[in-house]
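Example (one chain per record):
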Amino acid sequence: MELSTVLAEQTEMGAYADFAGGAPAAVLEKLGIGVRNVGSAQVLVIPHTSTRFWNKAGGFGGDTPVTADTMAAVCDFFRDRAVAAGSIMIAPSRLPDDWAEISAKLNLTEGARFAKLGCSVDDVLSRPAGVLGEGLRIGPVEQRQATEWANVMMGTFGFDDDGMADMAASSIGRPKWRSYAAWEGERIVATGSIYVNGDYADVFGATTLPEARGRGAQSALLTARAQAAKAAGCTWLVAETGAEKPGSYNTSLHNMLRAGFRPLYERTSWVWHGEG
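Predicted structure:
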């Protein structure tokens, strides 16, 4: 059995849509969170934030191929929700022959590039566990720890608008999520989750506070999450991170490569820009 590009993309987008769209009603209203299905693909918007990161669409392929009509439906949702910009994530193998015409018609421009990675759960579990720094411990996050965990995760990413940490905290305990942290004493210093989608699990939300970096927390969290994926019945792990540019070094990318992930492809984000 081979890892499916379509399921890898759908699992990634499903994680984003559920992470945000599964928040309590008060948080959905405060942030303006909206999710729309376009076939088996999904579109997410969070208008009431200072970042466009969360405005995205993905999961294309299979029974929802990339067509002019599909892309127009995505852009219409971005427009209807009055976001400044939104990213459309399409695996390169799923781009149609007429993509240049479609992107030009909808005024889509090339944005950031991401490295897509994947491996079997057993590929990670067969590797020797990394050395965890002295004084650190790894464990699952309980409901009572959700707020601290969310503040570390979202704050480290810079997503500190009012309501964003509440959105993240609400994922703790939801059926498709398994969330972990690294503690130093009683303080959370690193985070990481998986989103379970049948045979697939998306590795999500890896952050480490600056003062705790370089001490093996993320390598240990990858192992813990692979164990959780195995327990949930998953066969495959998928992940995404920023593609390296010449002369740059992405620590997250190399942590995953050491853990057993393999590069699948690099994917361009196609950016829709709102009017004005």
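Caption: Residues 5-21 form the longest helix (17 residues).
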